[in-house]
Structure formats: C-alpha cells, structure tokens
Design goal:
alpha/beta; 8-stranded mixed sheet; 8 helices
Length: 321
C-alpha cells in the first residue's frame, strides 16, 4: 500500500487539527505544514518563497479554508508537478483560473478534490436520495451584511455552497440569472435576492443577508408530489406529501398553514457519518483508481461563473455596493 506524504497549507493550529484527522489513515503520512499567511514565508514583493522546493515535500497538499492568502502560482506548480490537492471548501473565486487549473489537471491526471461542502454532508446526502426533478428551489440564509467593497468576497463566502447544491439538483443549464440587493437599514445591502431560471423551466430563489431571520439557514425543494425542508441550522429534514396524491404542490408561503392543503409530514432521520473520514477515504480511492471526485474543479468552476455573473449584474446598477 503506497503511503502518501501529506503537507498542510495553513496555520500551525490548523495543521495540528488535520494531523489528528489523518492519524486514523495509514495511507497518509503527515509531512509538515506551510503557512502562506506567515510574513516570514513571503518575499519583499509578497510572493511565496520556496514554492518549488515545497512541491517536493509531499504527494498530497491540503489547503485550509481559513487562509487569507491563496497563492495561485503555488497551486499551478503543484498541479503541473503531478501533486494531488484537497481543498477545504470552495476557495477559488476566479473562474478563469479554475478553468486553467482544470485543463492542467486533466493532462496531469491528478486528483483535485473539494471537501467539507454542504453537498457532501449528512443532511444533504440523506435528502438527495429523495429529490427528483425539482420545480422550485428556495433558499433563505441569515448572514452579516457585506462591508463596502467586499461584496464579491461576501457573496462567494456565503453562497458558493448553496449555489453548488442548486446547480446539481436542478440538473439543467442556466437560462437567466437576476440579482438585486435591498438597502433597508443603512448603506450596506441588508438583503440580496437572486432569481435563477433553468433551461428545464425549474426556478430557484435565494434570499440572503441580515434582513433574514436570525440564525435561519433553510433549503426548500418543491417537486410535483413532494416538498422537502432542509434546515441546516438544526440539521433536520422534513418531507411533506399531499394526502391526495393527485394534488399538485403549491408554493407555500411561511404564513400559509399546511393543514389547508392536507399534507402528511414525515421527519426523515439523518444518516450520521464522519464527514472527514469519508473525505479522506474517498481521496485515497480517487487517487489510486484515478476516479473523479464527487466535488471537484467542475463544481467550483460552475459556482465561480455564477457568482461572477451575479456580481457583475449587481455592480452595474448599484455602484455603492
């Protein structure tokens, strides 16, 4: 069994956490960490020193999501040199760079896996067994308002994972995206409304910001015969079925009582599993068998393209954002 030397790109504290997670996997050998945010590792021009030397220190490189400085040159060198990469979440917002790395990765035939996203977690993996051909998708998420000039980073940080889920369950090309911020309490947008129409006529509506009820983080999926409520805050999955199967599900408002439409409510149990154990197990199998990760560059590129379009639409009309 080949042992893969593993290097953590992140702080010492995060390296210790990943070292602990990797301890149960003899396939991975912890080989140190490198912190790009440490000023001692940067030249006077702000570029990482020892970048090429670092590439020789491992076979697998894990990038922590809390990095403030993500060096594109280092990532490109790692992929070119045939290294395998695990990202802790969606971390690259530049769609053009993701596309470029994807082309290099396809030639190098390495693994580039995205871990720790909503799509891979127990709540959604459970719900995904039942979701079929959704007609309407609604997301509500409470989050802080973006700081002036940080709208692009705010959008990617808060909605990348939700957009990823939407694109995968819609299973269709995008026909049109519209986006509008609402200024309710001050000069910063307090609510962002995003409306997505797909080629298969399904629709998604997203509301995110501090104007959403505190702590709320929900995904609702409406399909012809069922309605699913995914509560990410409370880790709950509820399925609603009409008592009369011939009834079509209407798009219910929060104030509209379910009893009027005679729904049967089913609380679906969540299948528990250790997410990081699954990620590392899948990573090793993907590397050894040259398999495509469940979440990888293709998904990150789709999210990056969508966020770029939303940002462009918003900034064209609302320069103050």
């Amino acid at each position: 069994m080949a042992v893969l030397r593993t290097v953590i790109i992140g702080s010492q504290r995060k390296a210790e956490i990943f070292q602990h997670l990797l301890a149960g996997f003899p396939e991975f050998e912890f080989n140190g960490f490198y912190d790009p945010d440490d000023a001692a590792n940067a030249s006077v021009l702000g570029e990482l020193i020892y970048s090429l030397e670092l590439c020789e220190q491992g076979d697998v490189f894990i990038f922590d999501r809390h990095l403030k400085y993500l060096d594109f040159g280092l990532i490109e060198n790692l992929v070119k040199m045939g290294k395998h990469i695990l990202f802790d979440g969606f971390m690259i917002q530049d769609a053009h760079f993701v596309n470029r790395i994807s082309q290099i990765q396809n030639e190098a035939r390495t693994c580039f896996q995205i871990a720790n996203v909503l799509h891979n977690k127990p709540l959604f993996t459970t719900a995904n067994q039942f979701i079929r051909r959704p007609r309407f998708i609604k997301i509500e998420k409470n989050c802080n308002a973006p700081k002036p000039g940080d709208f692009d980073k705010w959008l990617f940080h808060n909605l990348a994972q939700e957009l990823d889920i939407v694109f995968r369950i819609a299973e269709s090309g995008i026909r049109r995206i519209t986006a509008r911020p609402l200024f309710l309490f001050g000069n910063s947008p307090d609510l962002l409304n995003i409306h997505i129409e797909f080629d298969n006529d399904s629709i998604c509506h997203i509301s995110a910001g501090r104007a959403v009820e505190s702590g709320l983080h929900k995904l609702r999926v409406f399909q012809q015969d069922r309605l699913f409520h995914l509560d990410f805050s409370d880790n709950q999955l509820v399925e609603l079925r009409p008592v009369n199967p011939s009834d079509q599900l209407s798009i219910l408002s929060d104030e509209e009582p379910y009893g009027v439409h005679e729904f049967i409510e089913i609380n679906r149990p969540i299948m528990p599993f250790d997410m990081w154990k699954m990620e590392f197990r899948n990573l090793y199998e993907n590397i050894q068998k040259k398999l495509t990760p469940v979440s990888g560059l293709q998904q990150m590129e789709a999210v990056s393209h969508a966020t770029s379009e939303i940002i462009d639409k918003v900034l064209r009309k609302y320069a103050e954002v």
